[in-house]
Amino acid sequence: MPFVSGWGPVAAEAAGWWFFCQGTQLLVADGPPVTVPRGAGPAAFGLAPQSMQQLGTLDGVPCFVGALAAPPEVPPPGCCLVGLRELFGVLPDPLYAVATRAVHVAHWDLASRYCGRCGEPTALAVDERAKQCPACGQRSYPQIAPAVIVAVRRGDRILLARSPRFAPGMFSVLAGFVEPGETLEQCVHREIREEVGIEIGNLRYFGSQPWPFPNSLMLGFTAEYVAGEIMVDRVEVLEADWFPAAGPLPILPGKLSIARALIDNFLAEVIHEGTRRKRRSRGVLG
Questions:
Q1: Total domain count, the chain
Q2: Statement to judge: residues 168 and 79 lie in one domain
């Protein structure tokens, strides 16, 4: 049975999977195997989260998130806080998917304790995942910041760039946040133009990925080079260049990110096209 979303307050002794979050860290039982604590409420683990919410059910088992204001002075036996990024490929995929949701919801829960209109304390809505202000009636929802990310291709080369926020030597595809009143397609063209000064075409949707650091949704695209020479803005991008699929390639993002999926997709496409050309030259294909 897949994950089924749910919402609402939580009973103090509710039993199920408990996703205790502190920032982008998650409390896990260190196993083996590494997993998420399962039991009857925070008290069973000696914890007192600042807020709690339902997340839904996974394979019929209730899932809850508890937002910790600070790391526990004494973690539950056999448990420790681990960054969500580090848990990719360590937690089972179904639990990791719920963990990304938990981190996002916990961040929103703590950030929305007070009404943005009148400043009064908010309460969880009972009919949807939202916060309701009892004083003025203002209703707020989890913030989701859409961002585009695009792999630009020029023949058998891909455009990769280095941001000042990256680890030394690491390059990736370009990305940026969507502005108010802007379509995703307009955002892609603007970001590429602003950051590296080139024009692109044949824009195609690739896929999406929730990115709870703390509240983004990455929307991936592929595109082809049309015109212009690379001119980096020296603000968002320090270096950029066309890298051939045959290599050498710089240090790339980890397998967790849609950025790496876009790069790997480009490499697979080039290999596939090369194979088809060879087969054609041998008369295997028409």
A1: 2
A2: no
pTM: 0.87
- Measured CA to CA, the distance from residue 262 to residue 56 in angstroms comes to 30
Hey, what amino acid is at 37?
P
CA 175, distance to chain mean position in Å, is: 13
Model confidence pLDDT, tens digit, residues 179-204: 999 999 999 999 999 999 999 999 99
Phi and psi at residue 251, in whole multiples of 5°? -65, 130
What CATH number did the domain enclosing 183 receive? Answer: 3.90.79.10
Measuring CA to CA, how many Å separate 215 from each of 59, 119, 204, 209, 285? Answer: 26, 22, 24, 11, 47
Q: How far apart are CA 86 and CA 254, in angstroms?
A: 10
> 232 near 240, Cβ under 8 Å?
yes
10 and 101 in one domain?
Answer: yes
At 87 the three-state DSSP class reads: helix
Phi, psi torsion values for 124, nearest 5 degrees: -65, 135
Domain housing 98: 4-111
